[in-house]
């Protein structure tokens, strides 16, 4: 089963593949061996203060907003923070990532890191459901959060709850469900890197 949550992931995979093809073409044209993709490109300093936000499920009345922001450290490392906040401003989920360790941000495509942030949050606007969670034995498995069992995940599958899964690395997405006025992490969904 290939993950279905990734409206942004599909474009990131094709953009990464296109980037690799473009990178390899000059070397092949010169008869040199392809050295591989190399490290992710470093964003320019202007990308150190970007922000994008989207309402949970694309509904401004949902009471939840996902926000992505970037900042740079003194050693020129670019970081991204993903925050889910409730209408009263309380942070319900927050995580920080080096942009070169998140697929959609490390190789954001022609729209740069600003477009990468928009793609990163796309799955909060276009929710999937827990009914689509794969099993741990599937080719691209879902691993429950530490406080959940496979039986708990089976119950979530049966409930068919709205879910947002955002890319949090090069081969996995962190999945969240709404719980009251907040959200709950339910586990990681692996995808091909």
Helix content: 25-40%
Coarse structural class:
alpha+beta
Number of helices: 4
- What value does the Rg take, in angstroms? 18 Å
The secondary-structure element order is: HEEEEHHEEHEEE
CA-based shape: globular
Average pLDDT across residues? 82
Write the layout of secondary structure elements.
Layout: H1 7-29, E1 51-55, E2 64-72, E3 78-86, E4 91-98, H2 103-106, H3 112-125, E5 128-129, E6 142-144, H4 150-159, E7 162-167, E8 172-179, E9 182-190
Can you give a write-up of this model?
- The chain is built from 4 helices and 9 strands, in the order αββββααββαβββ.
- With 193 residues, it is α+β, with helices and mostly antiparallel strands.
- It has one domain.
- The strands form 2 sheets. Strands 5-7-8-9-6 form a 5-stranded antiparallel β-sheet, with helices on both faces.
- Strand 7 (162-167) and strand 8 form a beta hairpin.
- The longest helix has 23 residues, at 7-29.
């Amino acid at each position: 089963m290939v993950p279905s949550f990734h409206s942004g992931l599909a474009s990131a995979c094709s953009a990464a593949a296109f980037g690799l093809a473009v990178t390899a073409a000059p070397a092949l044209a010169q008869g040199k061996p392809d050295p591989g993709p190399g490290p992710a490109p470093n964003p320019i300093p202007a990308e150190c203060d970007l922000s994008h936000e989207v309402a949970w499920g694309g509904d401004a009345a949902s009471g939840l907003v996902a926000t992505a922001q970037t900042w740079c450290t003194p050693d020129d490392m670019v970081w991204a923070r993903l925050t889910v906040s409730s209408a009263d401003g309380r942070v319900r989920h927050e995580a920080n990532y080096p942009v070169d360790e998140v697929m959609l941000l490390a190789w954001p495509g022609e729209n740069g890191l600003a477009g990468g942030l928009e793609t990163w949050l796309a799955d909060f606007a276009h929710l999937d459901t827990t009914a689509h969670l794969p099993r741990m034995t599937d080719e691209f498995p879902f691993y429950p959060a530490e406080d959940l069992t496979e039986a708990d995940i089976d119950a979530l599958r049966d409930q068919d709850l709205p879910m947002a899964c955002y890319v949090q690395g090069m081969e996995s997405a962190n999945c969240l469900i709404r719980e009251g006025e907040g959200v709950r992490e339910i586990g990681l969904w692996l995808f091909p890197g």
